Amino acid sequence: MTREDPVKHFFLWPAVLVVLAIAIFPLIFSLANSFMSLRLVPPRPSKFVGFENYIDLLGNERFWQVVKTTSLISFTSVAFQFVIGFAIALALVKKVRGADFFRVSFLLPMLVAPVAVALVAKQILNPSMGPLNQVTTFFGFPNLPFLTDSTWALGSLIAVEIWQWTPFVILLLLAGLQGLPDDVYEAAELENASPWRQFWGITFPMMLPISVAVIFIRIVESFKIIDTVFVMTGGGPGIATETLSLFAYQEGFKKFNLGYTSALSFLFLIVVLIISLVYLAILKPYLERYK
User: How far apart are CA 124 and CA 232, in angstroms?
Assistant: First the structure.
C-alpha cells in the first residue's frame, strides 16, 4: 500500500470517527446540559435556563475562593517542582558514582498512585498520632495542625504535590539536558566561563523550550488535582483547601445538580485556557529569541 493509495481511508476513517464520537459527544452533551436546569435528586424535569448557571457561578463567592485555592496550590507547587527538578536533573546529568541508582530512586514517587500517597501522607501528618507530630512533641514543641489549620493544610498539600510530581519534571529535564551539544560547553571552557555563566548563558536558554513545555503540562495537570485533596483534607477545614475538581465532584456526585456541574466544568476549562494562553503569550518572545 502506497501513501497515495485511497484504500487507506477505509482503515483510517472508522477509527477517526470512533475517537471523535467518544471525545466530542460527551463534550457537546455536557455543554448542552450547562444551559439546562437538571437535577437528579430530588428529580426534576429538565428546563432550559440559558446562561443562568454560569451567572450563578460567577456570582458565587465559593467559586472564586476555589479558583484562588486551586491557583495557589498549582502555581506554588509547580514553581518548586521546576526549581528542585532542574537542580536534581543538573546533578544527575553529571558523571557521578551511583547516578543510575539515584535516577531510579528519584523517579519512584511518580510511580505511586496519588491516592496511596495521600493516605500515607495523611497518616504521617495526623495531628495527634502522626509520627511527624510525635517527633515534634518529643523535642518539646506543640502538635502542629498539619490538616486542621487552613494555612498548614494548604502547605501540606503543596508539599505532597512537590514530592510526588517533581520526578516527572526531573525525567523530562534530564532528557533535555542529555540532548544538549557538548561542543558548546567545550567552547565555553576554552573561554574560561564559570559554571554559573555556562548555566545562564548556555544551559538555561537552550533548555527554555522544554522548560516551558514541562511547566505548561504540570500547571494544567495540577489544576485538576482532586484525589490528594479528597483523601487528605476533604476540602477542609471548611472550604480552605477545596479545589475546582473537588467542587465539581461535590455538586455533581453529592448534590446531583448536573446542569450546574456542567457549567462549572466549562468555566473550569475557560479558567485553565485563559491561564495557558497568558502563560504562552508572556513566554513567546523569549521562545522566539532562542529558536
Answer: 11
